[in-house]
């Protein structure tokens, strides 16, 4: 019996009792083995009641990430989910799996990352119990230059998921941050392996980190101004499992029609930079003031510089200049 097989049966029967004898029969183990495994799941945070003559009952309010818990909500047939309690970084680990031949659709979700990575060599704060840190392996038949579309469709998938689960609108800050009420609730980092001769992708790993809840004690001081969470401090039934499943389903759906760019309008409509005075930030260069005019269909940011030049920017980051002059 694996822990996941037991969990899968408990999830199938969430909020109803299933007897120890039935579990033991279905899993071909003794009732004692079932009980030991149940104790272990409780230790991990699953809310499992037990009542004499009735058996065990998993509460659907348990908000622990598990493969069975996510698969319960997942609709897409070609996603295989693995969940780890703690990893260095889901991107780093999934890239190793990709190099070893893991198939497209392999998803790695973690409760905690000890070396979560962000853009531009930054770290990504990934405490346990409150976030969803996931990476999805894709093997697109596209040129590396089109990889930016993966990040863009991931941003829309996250925005739509958090909106449908919370009922609050989300915004997108070019190119890859998802915000709620002006605070960053999600960061996205896409890394790829490229065939230098053809310029085509071997594979891409899309890494998504969502702050679902505010961590106990709040965000660290250096993040407090900028970081937010989709919900407050209290979660809900299987909230993070539903979040992971919704994001993976939507992302896979968009990915399968990547070239149609059905996510383009959803991306543009949620943009917080359009029409605003901004600073273009490129490592090693001074910030460049500009006006954000548009996002083209390749997800480049169309800007007007102070001398009136129009530029399509496809790398770097931007910050909004509050009250800065328009030009
Ligand atoms: C950013 O905002 O700079 C991007 C953050 C990306 C974080 C996610 S969490 C899952 C995946 N694993 C990582 O180490 N990073 C990405």
Number of strands: 14
Distance between the termini: 66 Å
Compounds present?
A: biotin
| Main pleated-sheet profile | 7 strands, mixed
Low-pLDDT parts are none
User: Which H/E pattern describes the elements?
Assistant: HHHEEHEHEEHEEEEHHEEEEE
Quaternary structure type: single chain
The whole-number mean of residue pLDDT values reads 94
Helix/strand structural class: alpha+beta
Morphology call: elongated
Task: Tell me the strand order in the biggest sheet.
Answer: 3-4-5-9-8-7-6
Total of DSSP H or I helical runs spanning 4+ residues: 8
Structural account:
There is one protein chain. This protein has about 325 residues and is α+β, with helices and mostly antiparallel strands. The protein is about 30% helix and about 25% strand. The protein is built from 8 helices and 14 strands. It has helices at about 5-10, 20-25, 30-45, 65-70, 90-100, 150-165, 240-255, 265-270; strands at about 50, 55-60, 80-85, 105-115, 130-140, 170-175, 175-180, 185-195, 200-210, 275-280, 290-295, 300-305, 310-315, 315-320. Strands 3-4-5-9-8-7-6 form a 7-stranded mixed sheet, with helices on both faces. A 5-stranded antiparallel sheet has the order 13-12-11-10-14, with no helix packed on it. Helix 6 runs antiparallel to helix 7 (about 240-255). The site of biotin (BTN) has 19 residues, from helix 5, strand 5, strand 8 and strand 9.
